[in-house]
Amino acid sequence: xxxxFQIHPNNPQVRLIRQAADIVRQGGVIAYPxxxxxxxxxxxxxxxxxxxxxxxxxxxxxxxxxxxCRDLSELGVYAKVDNTTFRLLKAATPGPYTFILNATSEVPxxxxxxxxxxxxxxxxxxxxxxxxxxxxxxxxxSVTLILPDDPLPLTDPEQIRDRxxxxxxxxxxxxxxxxxxTTVISLLDGEAELLREGRGDPEPFGLSRDENxx
Length: 214
Hints:
By secondary structure, the chain is an alpha/beta fold. The chain has six helices and ten strands, in the order E-H-E-E-H-E-H-H-E-E-H-E-H-E-E-E. It has helices spanning 14-25, 47-57, 72-78, 83-92, 127-136, 157-164, and strands spanning 3-6, 30-32, 39-43, 66-68, 97-102, 118-122, 140-144, 170-173, 183-186, 193-196. Strand 2 and strand 3 (39-43) form a beta hairpin. Helix 1 packs across helix 5 (127-136).
C-alpha cells in the first residue's frame, strides 16, 4: 500500500514535505495536488519511475511529460527563453499553464519530443507543490492524473487512494482540486499558440478562448 500524507494546503508541514521529497528521490511515484488537477510525479531522469507512470496512464512514448518547476529561474535551466518570452512567462507564473518551449541540453533525451527538441514546463501556484519542489531542489516530472477510460482527472484524495493505493508510493492529500487541466500554450519561435484550453486564461497571451482547437 502507498503512504498517505494529509498536508495542509496553505501551511504544509515541513516534516511531511521532506518525507515526500525523500520518496521521490528514492524512485517513488507520487500523486500530488496542483493549482489545476491532481498529477502523477516522479524524479527527473528516473527511467524506471517514468515507465511506471506510462503503464499507469497507458501512455505511448510520444506522450509529452511536463517538468514542474518552482520558479522562472529554474525553468530557464531547462528551456531556451528570450527576453520577449520571459516577459510573457513572468506575467503568467505561477499559474495553471503549461508552456511548450525549446529545450536546453539539461533535459534528458527520453523526455524530449521525438521529432523536435521541445519540452513542456510549468510553475504551479500551489503551496504544497512549491514546497515539495524546494525540498527536492529540482523539477518534478509530471502528467495529469487522469486514468485510462476516465473522462476527467481524479480530484478526491480518498478516491485516488481507493484506485491507486497499490500502484503509487505516496498520495498527498492536499484537499480537492479542480477537474480542469492546465492551459497549454506553445511559445516556440516567439509566438503564442493555444494548444489546449484549460484553467488558465489564454487572453494575457493575446489568444481568445473562442479559438477553435483540433
